[in-house]
């Protein structure tokens, strides 16, 4: 088995304690294997609210803050190449509102982005429920 990770973390003007990076990367790769999706590579870009709001406006035409935006860059039926942008500001606020550790919310958002690339969405109540079930499954795995 190839020991080189296909998952990369980048920090754009933010500092966050991301402990057990290798374990988190392995867990993300496990999600793709369990969901029977071939992963080429995946970049996670951790940034500020302002960066993500700009991306949301420019590419999705949405004018609101969000915790994560996911882009699939590969062609259909090709191994997945993706980018997941995560607002550290939103993750911190969400964790505070949920009364959970920032690290726990960060793992959920990281897995959430991977699940989007595996074909899950959160566009309606039923899809959100399924997404949350899969997040919980992998968080508890």
Short description:
This protein has 141 residues and is of the alpha/beta class. The protein is built from five helices and four strands.
Distance between the termini: 21 Å
Number of helical regions: 5
Q: CATH homologous superfamily, by name? A: Metalloproteases ("zincins"), catalytic domain
Measured by DSSP, the beta-strand proportion falls in 15-25%
**Class computed from helices, strands and strand pairing:** alpha/beta
CATH class: Alpha Beta
Q: Fill in the CATH topology.
A: Collagenase (Catalytic Domain)
Q: Average pLDDT across residues?
A: 94
Shape: globular
Query: What is the makeup of the main sheet?
Result: 4 strands, mixed
Number of strands: 4
Order of helices and strands: EHEHEEHHH
Could you characterize the architecture of this molecule?
The protein has 141 residues and is α/β, with parallel strands linked by helices. It has a single domain (7-140), classed as 3-Layer(aba) Sandwich (Collagenase (Catalytic Domain)), CATH 3.40.390. Helix content is 49%, strand content 19%. The chain has five helices and four strands; from the N terminus they run E-H-E-H-E-E-H-H-H. A four-stranded mixed sheet has the order 1-2-4-3, sandwiched between helices. The longest helix is centred in the C-terminal third of the chain and has 16 residues, at 102-117.
């Amino acid at each position: 088995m190839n020991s080189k990770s296909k998952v990369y973390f980048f920090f754009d003007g933010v500092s966050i304690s991301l402990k057990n990076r290798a374990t988190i990367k392995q867990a993300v790769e496990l999600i793709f294997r369990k969901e029977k999706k071939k992963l080429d590579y995946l970049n996670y870009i951790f940034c500020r609210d302002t960066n993500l709001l700009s991306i949301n406006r420019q590419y999705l035409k949405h004018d609101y803050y969000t915790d994560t935006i996911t882009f699939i860059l590969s062609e259909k039926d090709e191994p997945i190449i993706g980018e997941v942008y995560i607002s550290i500001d939103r993750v911190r606020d969400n964790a505070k509102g949920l009364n959970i550790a920032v690290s726990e919310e960060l793992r959920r958002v990281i897995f959430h982005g991977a699940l989007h690339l595996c074909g899950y969405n959160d566009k309606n109540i039923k899809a959100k429920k399924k997404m949350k079930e899969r997040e919980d499954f992998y968080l508890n795995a």
